[in-house]
Design brief:
By secondary structure, the protein is of the alpha+beta class. It has helices spanning about 10-15, 20-40, 50-70, 75-100, 100-110, 120-125, 130-140; strands at about 110-115, 120, 150-155, 160-165.
Length: about 180
């Protein structure tokens, strides 16, 4: 069958029955939820400076926007519907995370103490699948030459490192962050 350019029926509605819109809503909710679940297990480093929640929203919106743009068999209405559902789910999850710390921890992850009183917490590094080299790299980026200068360091849900150093003169001896 020959494709007719600017066929508004095909462009906006498609050739499926209207009930297919409910299937799109169902598919979007399932895929969004699964992608959020999977992103939480990618680890903090796998998403750059984004929280798992932000990462999933960007991926989902990118896909929803892109497909109707260049696939002639994906009606614009389907893309609009998917984007609308993603925005609604994002708003609902935001509202839930604002009222429930436990939901926030499940969706966003939690802050992990990595260095305490100049000592690296090895169990935290292992749990976050972070190497000592990666930790030292992040500390060097914050101009930390010695781990003994760090009073506390936290790995944030976004994968960034928050560092609190000792006051001048209170530093401890510790491992150098400089490469060999």
């Amino acid at each position: 069958m020959e494709m007719i350019p600017f066929d508004f029926q095909r462009m906006f509605i498609g050739e499926h029955p209207p009930l297919f819109m409910l299937e799109i809503i169902f598919r979007t909710v399932i895929m969004y939820g699964y992608t959020l679940f999977a992103a939480r297990f990618m680890g903090k480093r796998g998403m750059g400076q984004l929280t798992p929640f932000e990462f999933v929203v960007i991926i989902a919106l990118g896909s929803a926007v892109g497909d109707p743009m260049f696939y002639d068999d994906v009606p614009l209405t389907y893309g609009i519907l998917v984007i609308t559902i993603i925005v609604i789910m994002q708003r609902l999850l935001n509202a839930l995370t604002n009222v429930s710390p436990s939901v926030e921890e499940v969706v966003e992850g939690k802050t992990i103490l990595i260095i305490d009183k100049g000592e690296v917490i090895e169990a935290s590094l292992r749990a976050e699948e972070m190497s000592m080299e990666e930790l030292c790299m992040q500390l060097r980026q914050k101009n930390i030459r010695n781990i003994g200068a760090v009073e506390k360091a936290y790995l944030e849900p976004s994968g960034s490192l928050s560092v609190f150093t000792y006051e001048k003169g209170q530093e401890r001896n510790g491992v150098s962050t400089l490469p060999d």
